[in-house]
Specification:
The chain has 400 residues and is α/β, with parallel strands linked by helices. It is 38% helix and 21% strand. It has two domains: 149 residues, 2-Layer Sandwich (Nucleotidyltransferase, domain 5), CATH 3.30.420; 195 residues, 2-Layer Sandwich (Nucleotidyltransferase, domain 5), CATH 3.30.420.40. The protein has 15 helices and 14 strands. An eight-stranded mixed sheet has the order 5-4-3-2-1-6-8-7, sandwiched between helices. Strands 11-10-9-12-14-13 form a six-stranded mixed sheet, sandwiched between helices. The structure holds adenosine-5'-diphosphate, acetylphosphate and magnesium ion. Acetylphosphate binds next to loops. Magnesium ion binds next to loops.
């Protein structure tokens, strides 16, 4: 079965084309730095054990422009992998917020699209891109079954004490105000890989997903018991452009003393804060360059970013009542040794001790980067949300 997966992140679109159920990748790609200068599209075609890489730098102002470009690459003479878009049988979409209505993988209908749209205000950086991905894919892949896989799904197992906020009960029962949690597809994928690597199905694992959006999950024997994002993907860790957790009184102050309206508050906390607000850059590669040139704000931002992660490791080790492994994943987690070093510094108390040589090495696949006597494994595991999504789609079609 030909399954094409689209993962619209806040700053990137990732896509992969798989033959299922063999999980054989046909091509994949990444459109990066959407909305920044010099967007990069990297397209890989896999044929007979060979990997052909096509890289183009162009200006992509938004996700729609990015998706159009991906559509062109799939059928482009010489490098195209299909002649006709009708050859795609299933398109799996990453949809970030499923809200109250969707906790499971779902075939996309008009009603589903309406629900995804209703959730725009709760995931303003994501659901619009996901929605657009669906609209464009429906036009390009007319014969395919379009399926949504929600970031929120893996977190459905959170116990009530972890998903409820301490506000009057009716706000939960009447309005669905609760923790939903995000990046679930990624947390699930790397947690499963980690427990397989450890050969311990009951493993207590903290997964640390550091992309443009960042979140952590506490996973106990495969079940997610806590996570750092909340009702929307704004809470928790410091992110590329998002503040992570802040005191809600700051919002009152912005509104009553500085005259902000809702739109302006949302814009400030979602798009102008986080690493961007602290340094002027949202991309860790730019921040690292700036820090190496002596920029003190960049250094502070790194410290703040890592300190927040450390605090969550502490609280999740307590929530889990033990710790077998921490797992770094996604853009920053997989590629930035300095972040991993700062997070793991002075964490001997938790049995975390980093081997700096192993930390600096770049190798594909799962890497163990703790010292030999480190009680807690420190793992770098490349996430593969696309493969997880393809498998979820297959699972749903088999049930139908
Ligand atoms: N080599 C690298 N070194 C440091 N950071 C990197 C590197 N490559 C990517 N990143 C970081 O990863 C982020 C993108 O991560 P990704 O998981 O693809 O994000 P998203 O899915 O949210 O768009 C970039 O913003 C950048 O900060
Ligand atoms: C939910 C979320 O923050 O996603 P991303 O990291 O892809 O922006
Ligand atoms: Mg992502």
């Amino acid at each position: 079965m030909n399954v094409f997966v689209i993962n619209s992140g806040s700053s990137s679109i990732k896509y992969q084309f798989f033959k299922m159920p063999s999980e054989q990748p046909i091509c994949s790609g990444l459109v990066e730095r959407i909305g920044l200068e010099d967007s990069i599209i990297t397209h890989k075609v896999y044929t007979g054990g060979h990997e052909q890489v096509i890289s183009r730098t162009l200006d992509l102002p938004d996700h729609e422009a990015g998706m159009q470009e991906v559509g062109r690459l799939l059928t482009e003479p010489e490098i195209g992998v299909i002649q006709n878009p009708d050859e795609i049988e299933v398109v799996g979409h990453r949809v970030v917020h499923g809200g109250e209505s969707f906790s499971k993988t779902t075939v996309i209908t008009l009603e589903v699209k309406e629900e995804i749209k209703k959730l725009f205000p709760l995931a303003p950086l994501h659901n619009p891109g996901g929605y657009l991905g669906i609209e464009v894919a429906e036009k390009i892949f007319r014969k395919a079954t379009q399926i949504a896989v929600f970031d929120t799904a893996f977190h459905q197992t959170l116990p009530e004490k972890a998903f409820r906020y301490a506000i009057p009960n009716s706000y939960y029962t009447d309005y669905g105000i609760r923790v939903y949690g995000f990046h679930g597809t990624s947390h699930k994928f790397v947690a499963e890989q980690a427990s397989e690597y450890l050969a311990k199905p009951s493993a207590k694992i903290i997964t640390i997903h550091l992309g443009n959006g960042c979140s952590m999950a506490a996973v106990d024997g495969g079940t997610c018991v806590d996570t750092s994002m909340g009702m929307g993907p704004l809470d928790g860790l410091v992110m590329g452009t998002r503040s992570g957790n802040i005191d809600a009184s700051i919002v009152f102050h912005l509104v009553s003393h500085l005259g902000y309206d809702v739109e302006q508050v949302s814009n400030l906390l979602n798009k102008r804060s986080g690493m961007l607000g602290l340094t002027g850059y949202s991309d860790m590669r730019d921040i690292r360059k700036s820090m190496d040139k002596g920029d003190k704000n960049a250094r502070l931002a790194y410290d703040l970013y890592a300190y927040r992660i450390k605090k969550y490791i502490g609280s999740y080790a307590a929530a889990l009542g033990g710790l077998d492994a921490i797992v770094f994943t996604a853009g920053v987690g997989e590629n930035d040794p300095l972040t991993r070093k700062l997070v793991c510094q002075d964490m001997d108390f938790f049995g975390i001790s980093l081997d700096e040589d192993k930390n600096q090495k770049r190798e594909p696949g799962i890497r163990e980067i703790n010292t030999a006597n480190g009680r807690t494994k420190v793992l770098v595991i490349p996430t593969n949300e696309e493969l997880e999504i393809a498998n979820q789609c297959l699972g749903l079609l088999r049930e139908m």
